[in-house]
Amino acid sequence: MALQNIPVALAGFRLLVTEAPTVKVRELDNGELAPVVDRRTGVEQYVITVFAKPLPTADGRRPGKGEEIKVNLPADPGPGFEEGTYVELVAPVLNTYEMRNEAGVITASGLWWKAEGLKPVYREAAA
In the CATH hierarchy, which top-level class contains the domain 6-120? Predict the structure, then answer.
C-alpha cells in the first residue's frame, strides 16, 4: 500500500535550486513526450530540482553532505527560481509508490516529493 502526502519538516535544511522549474513531461506509448496536467484543472505541472543540505548542528557539526531531490509542483511557480537560488518549499510532502508486474510482484518502489509552491529565501550578505 502506498502512503500519500506525508508532511515533511525541512527546517534543518538549506535548499538550493540546481535545476530551474520546468514543465513535467511523460512519455506516451508512441514515444512522444507530453506535458503532465492536473486531471481536475488541466493546469500543467512543474518539477524543480533542489539540493537539500543539512544545516550545522548547535555544536557546529554537519550531519551529512546532503542530497539532490526532484519536487513536483502543481503549477508554474513564476519567475525568480533560477539555478543557484535558495528556496523554501511550501507545504512539502512525501509520497510512496510501488510498481507491480502482471503476477503482482513488486518490481520497483520509492518516494516522490511534491509541494504546493516555492518561496525565495534571501540570505544576508556576509559582513
Answer: mainly beta
Instruction: Report the residue count for the chain.
Output: 127
pLDDT 10s digits, 14-61: 999 999 999 999 999 899 999 999 989 999 999 999 999 999 888 888
Report d(CA 15, CA 67) in Å as an integer: 10
Nearby residues of 105 by Cβ (< 8 Å), 6 or more positions away: none
Q: How far apart are CA 83 and CA 77, in angstroms?
A: 14
Q: Which three cell numbers stand for residue 49?
A: 530540482
The overall pTM is greater than 0.90 = no
Number of separate helices (H) and strands (E) present in the chain:
0, 10
Residue 49 CA to residue 2 CA, distance in Å, equals 23
Q: Are strands 46-54 and 33-35 parallel, antiparallel or unpaired?
A: unpaired
Residue 121 near residue 33 (C-beta atoms within 8 A): no
Give me Rg for the CA atoms of the chain: 17
Closest listed residue to residue 72, CA positions, set 12, 4, 122: 4
